[in-house]
Amino acid sequence: MDKSVNPYQWGFAIYRTVYTPQSDELWSSVLEKLESYMELSCKDPGYRDELSNIVVWDREKFNNASIDEIRKDFRREMLIPEMGDDEIKSDDDAATEDRKQDLYCQKQAELAEELGDEALWGEVNGSYCLLIDDEVFQSILNAPEPAKGMKMKWGTYEYIGFVKVVTVYERSFRNEHWPGWGKIDFRLLWWLRGEDEIEREAPVPLPEREGVYELPVITGDL
């Protein structure tokens, strides 16, 4: 499937999983506020007016959907088939790896044919999607109004608001503690566009708290 994309276009798939009366009433203004922050986070004037997010919503399908459910849908939209026991493993021999790769390509082609031009692949960032649940909705709602000149306080953990980021992969070789999703300050969404391993910036648990992984907001303390 070939999609002609504006080289300056950038944006994310934004999954809406909150469908409360408040969110129904204020959704448009909250989304506009988030996108204003995204545009202000852009450091390249050539890209600033080319933001193009795609909101994915379905009250019956995504209301209070879990992270795993969102990831599964996003992977499908990115034409990544579910392989089950045929997932390629590091200890596979060459013949097994070739067989699994051929099967992957076959399933991917079938998925591309099924979804056709409706697939989000090629339209949005393929490494991450953004998720707006009630926690994120309230964070955007309560954040100050976006304005030019709002700068990161580098070297601190202060943030003005956050959105949740779901990676297309659940586990990472870069960070064994990475749970497959995180929170990021609005003002880093332009930076996120060019990253494909956000988990490298996610702090790991303290040794004395083994097994406990709290997700702080990824801020300017990079």
Can you describe this structure?
It contains seven helices and six strands, in the order E-H-H-E-H-H-H-E-H-E-E-H-E. With 222 residues, the protein is of the alpha/beta class. Residues 207-214 have low confidence and may be disordered. Strand 5 (181-185), helix 7 and strand 6 (217-218) form a beta-alpha-beta unit. The two termini are 37 Å apart. Strands 2-1-3-4-5-6 form a six-stranded mixed beta sheet.
What is the secondary structure topology, with strand pairs?
Blueprint: E1 13-16, H1 21-41, H2 45-48, E2 54-56, H3 59-62, H4 67-77, H5 94-115, E3 128-132, H6 134-142, E4 162-167, E5 181-185, H7 189-193, E6 217-218
Helix pairs in contact: 1-6
